[in-house]
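Subject: for your reference before the review

Hello V.,

The reviewers asked for a structural picture of the protein, and I figured it would be easier to keep everything in one thread rather than splitting it across files. Below is the amino acid sequence we used in the manuscript, unchanged from the supplementary table.
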Amino acid sequence: MADLLLGLDVGTSSARALLVDRELRPVGAGQVLLASSRPAPDRVEQDAGAVWSAVGEAVASALSSAGRSPADVASVGVTTQRSSVVVWERSTGRPVAPMVVWNDLRGTGRAVELRDAGFPVFPIAAAAKLEAVVDGLDDGRQRVGAGELAWGTLDSFLVARLAGGLHVTDRSCAWSSGCLDVFDTSRWNEPLAAHMGLPRGFFPDLCDTMGPLGTVSALGIESPLGAVVADQQAGMFAHGAEAPGAWKATLGTSGVLMVATGEAMDLGSGLMPMLLSSSGGRTLFAAEGMVRSAGEMLPWAVGQGLAGSVEEVASLAGSVPDAGGVAVLPALHGLGTPYDDPAATVAVHGRTDTTTAAQVARAVLEGVAFRMREVADLVVAAHGVGGDVALPVDGGLARSDAFCAILADVLARPVVRHPVVEATALGAAVAAARGAGLDVDPSPGGGDRFEPTVGAKVAPERLAWWRSVVLPGSEATA
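And here is what came back from the structure prediction:
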C-alpha cells in the first residue's frame, strides 16, 4: 500500500528528498549538494540537467534509508528556490542553456528599463533575466516562436521531467518570477510578455498549489503530483503558519522572514507582498523581507581563512561572548529588505591587530541577525506581532545553536527551531498530502527554544550601533 508522502525541496545549494508517513513523521531522507558557477561577477548559473540528476539521487537515497520502494509513494510535492530561469526543448526535456539562479544580477539594468515601462520587476526576478537567456541562444527567438522551447522556473522544469512533459507552475512560484499579473493572479502579465516579445505558449500553464495536478511517472514512481509550491511558502505550511499574522523565518542560502496576511495583500509596509497559495478558488497572501546573504556567509568566512569549515565558523562564533567591536555587513549579492540595493558588497569594520578569528566569525553571524531584525521590525510594525511572540525558524543556518542564540538576543524575543530543521521539504510533503485529499496536522511539536539574554531596550541600541558602523546614515531610511 502506498502510504508515504515525498517532499522534494530543491534549493540553491542542495536537492533534498524527505519521506514522511501520514502523521508527518520523517522515515527517510536524502540530500545531494548542487554546484553553482560564476562566469562573471554578477552571474550565478547551474546545470539544470545536473540538478535533475541530483533529484534522482536524493530520492533513491531517501527510499534506501527508509527501506522502502517507489511503489510506497502516495503523493509527491515539489518545492524549489524561486525565480530561476530554465529553458528546455519540449521534445526532449533537455535544457538548452545554463539555469540562471535567482541571485544572478545580470538583469539589473533590464529591471530598471522594465520599471520605467511600467512593469514592477526587480533585478532578482526571472522577468529581468528571461530575455537575456533566450537571446543568448542561437536562433532563440525563432525556436521560441516555433514552439520548440519551453521556459519555467526550476519547479516547472522539474515537474516537466517528473510528469511526462507537463508544463505548469503554481501561482506562488509564478508570483516571484515577476511575470504574473498581480491584479488578476489567474493569468500571466500578458502586456509584459508582449513587451518582451515572447508568446504565451512559451510560458507554463498556471495550476493550483495543491492538486492532484498530474501524474508522476519518473524515478520509478507512479503516483499523483500533489503539490507545486515555492520554497518559502512551503516553509509556512511546515510551521502551520497560514493564519493572518503567523510568521516564520527560513535561514538557508538567503534568509527570508514571511508573515501570512490572509486574503489581503500587504502593499504598504515595505515588505514584499507574496502569494502564499492558491487552491480550490481561494488565494491566500503573505508578505516577506529578504536578507539576501545569510547561510552563504559561512562559506564566505571559510574562504576568508577564518576556519576550515562552516561548522567551525559557527563553533568559533559561539566560543566568544561578543565580536570585540567588529561589525560585518552580509551582502554577497547586494542588500534586500528594506534597502533593495544590488550594488552593496560585504564589508568588515572594526578589525584590529588583536581581533581574533572567533570575533570575526561572531560578527558574521551577528550581521545576519541584525539584518533579520531589520526585517522583523517591519513585520511587527505592520502586523502587530506581540513582543513575547517567538519567531519560528528553520533552514541550514538554524542548525547552529550559536546563531539561534544570537538571533534571540538581537530580536529580544524567543526563537524556536523547527524539530525538522529542513522544514521546507516537510512543507512540500504537507502540501502533497493535501493535494491527495489527506487530512494532516502540520503544527510542529517540540523544537529547541532559545530565550533572549538581553533586555528589550538593549537590542535596539545594538542594532543602531551596527547600522552606524556598516551603513552610516541608514537610520533615517531603514
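For the response letter, the relevant points are probably these. The chain has a mean pLDDT of 95. The CA atoms of residues 98 and 282 lie 35 Å apart.

Happy to draft the paragraph if you're swamped.

O.
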